[in-house]
Amino acid sequence: MPSGRGAGTARAGSFAYEYPRPAVTVDAVVFGLDEEALKVLLIERGVDPFLGQAALPGGFVRMTESLEAAVRRELAEEAGLRDIFLEQLYTFGEVDRDPRDRIISVAYFGLVNIRDHRVRGATDARAAGWHDVKRLPPLAFDHAAIVRTALVRLQGKVRYQPVGFELLPAKFTLTQLQHMYETILGRDLDKRNFRRKILEMGLLEGLPEKQTGVAHRAAQLFRFDREAYESLTRRGFNFEI
Amino acid sequence: MPSGRGAGTARAGSFAYEYPRPAVTVDAVVFGLDEEALKVLLIERGVDPFLGQAALPGGFVRMTESLEAAVRRELAEEAGLRDIFLEQLYTFGEVDRDPRDRIISVAYFGLVNIRDHRVRGATDARAAGWHDVKRLPPLAFDHAAIVRTALVRLQGKVRYQPVGFELLPAKFTLTQLQHMYETILGRDLDKRNFRRKILEMGLLEGLPEKQTGVAHRAAQLFRFDREAYESLTRRGFNFEI
DNA sequence: ACAAAAGTGTTGAACGTACACCCATGC
DNA sequence: GCATGGGTGTACGTTCAACACTTTTGT
Questions:
Q1: Lower CB count within 10 Å: N or C terminus of chain B?
Q2: Calpha distance A92→B25 (Å, rounded)
Q3: Residue A21: its chain B contacts at CB < 8 A?
Q4: Same structural domain, A143 and A85
């Protein structure tokens, strides 16, 4: 089993081809949100090159699994993350992006509610943890550029697709929802206008429940109604914040 | 040099690796527009598998070229197309998308003004030609799915980025521009509202020239002012049709 | 009683949409 | 002179943006 990025240089081996082949990896930029900031999941590399440095979770694609299956497997192995929202981001294929071999990486973009998914390190990764997007350590390979690409995508996407809900718990308050948008978009939104707009879309189901454990008036909880969204979308509705 | 999709099965060869590797190809979905319809550039395959069948231009990525360089080389070799608008579309990596080997394909999406670029077949491709998007022949591999993905992307993209100009000649009339949007979006636009909106954006430079060779009042010619667009974009302007 | 966040409406400006006629030109 | 597309303005409805105070609850 491939055990890190160094595998597969052109020394003697059991897999021979008529023409040279690049290696193919997948990498995941998984965003999470907590009270303070937008965070990215990073691991500490346990193998060379860049041993000990921070990097995106990822690894080699096996011959019997699809690209998406490969990222999901790596996220489970390296960070204990399963069943999260993921979509393909971009494929990075510059010739010299890996110092030792030609490696093409298919990057994925993921969103997760930090509270519901405990993260842990394993296998090639010595540790997995959340890092504030605005204060990232130096990253291995071209992973800093991959994170920048993912951030631009997130900021664009969140405005016209209801993906932000993936970052929140299943039940949330309108203020939490608003803060999520403010954190990602980097600007403040008007409370009254925000509430009117999002409620009038008809995508939120108000629950007969309130926040608990807060030292002030408890807010109503809502949940995202995926069925309503899909049904509206079929009728030509376009989400937009 | 790889001469078709069949190269690189695991029989004896000069390139050996410790772990098996998928082959990596690039494919291009190039759209063009003429008076009647939106068209896609297809070649007729000159090698197995799917010999003689229609397919997207594309081929294997070489070890010394980036992904984008590979698509540009293939487009030049197989269709004589150079210097066109291209951007990455999606990477297709299902295990069984090629019947003979594991092949991962990075698809690109291109736009071209049919009139300015004469297309011709060559190398692995026996012929290259334009086909109405709505009447495509059966395509090799999963290329029909790739074209569908590209079409969805084009329809989404054209509304909020000024890429449609790539499909028109450098100098065009407002009616040509409107028809381009109508063809891609599949719905009619109001002539007066369209003109007002696009002119007020300040992205079109009116030229002191008119259409020639038409059997009615000649329309004014315009050209897209890329510098104005970039300068406005830096100030927070968002293009939208 | 006070601190903290929840919740709630109105107004003016900007924008989108619907709609019909005269004009210039080539044949 | 007629057929063809070029070019133009207005009125109405909808949406967006700005703005401040009362209510509820826990400590």
A1: N
A2: 14
A3: 8, 15, 17, 21-24
A4: yes
- Tell me which chain A residues have a C-beta less than 8 angstroms from the C-beta of B102: 63
CA dist B164 → A78, B114, B145, B181, B241 (Å): 43, 13, 22, 8, 11
Distance CA B179, CA B185 (A): 10
To the question of pTM greater than 0.85 for the whole model, the response is yes
Residues 6+ apart with CB under 8 A from A184: A38, A154, A155, A158, A164
Tell me which residue has tokens 């979509």.
A87
Q: Is residue B133 domain-shared with residue B78, that is, in the same domain?
A: yes
* CA-closest candidate to residue B240, choices B179, B162, B180: B162
Residues in chain B whose Cβ is within 8 Å of chain A? 1-2, 7-24, 60-61, 63-68, 88, 90-91, 93-95, 102, 104, 106
Distance from residue B191's CA to nucleotide C22's C1', rounded to whole Å: 16
The enclosing domain of A33 has a CATH number of: 3.90.79.10
Distance from CA of B103 to the nearest CA of A (A): 9
Chain C nucleotides with an atom closer than 7 Å to a protein C-beta: 3-10, 16-20, 23-27
Q: Which helix or strand (DSSP H or E) is residue B179 part of?
A: helix B174-185
Is residue A31 domain-shared with residue A149, that is, in the same domain? yes
Specify if A6 maps to a domain: no
pLDDT in tens, chain A (241 residues): 344 333 334 456 789 999 999 999 999 999 999 988 999 999 999 999 999 999 999 999 999 999 999 999 999 999 999 999 999 999 999 999 999 999 999 999 999 999 989 898 776 667 899 999 999 999 999 999 999 999 999 999 999 999 999 999 999 999 999 999 999 999 999 999 999 999 999 999 999 999 999 999 999 999 999 999 999 999 989 999 9
Q: Between chains, do B61 and A22 touch, taking CB under 8 Å as contact?
A: yes
DSSP state of B207: E
Contact B95 A63 (CB under 8 A): yes
CA distance B88 to A88: 12
Inspect the interface and report whether the beta carbons of B13 and A22 lie closer than 8 Å.
no
Q: How far apart are CA A86 and CA A77, in angstroms?
A: 16
Cross-strand partners of A60: A25
Nearest Cα of chain A lies from the Cα of B172 at a distance, in angstroms, of 31
Query: Is A61–B93 a contact, with Cβ atoms under 8 angstroms apart?
Result: yes
Q: Which residue among A19, A23, A93 places its CB closest to the CB of B60?
A: A19
Q: How many domains does chain A have?
A: 2
Domain final residue pick, A159, A189, A207: A159
Which residues constitute the domain of residue A55?
23-159
Distances (CA, A) of B20 to A11, A124, B15, B102, B105: 13, 19, 11, 10, 17
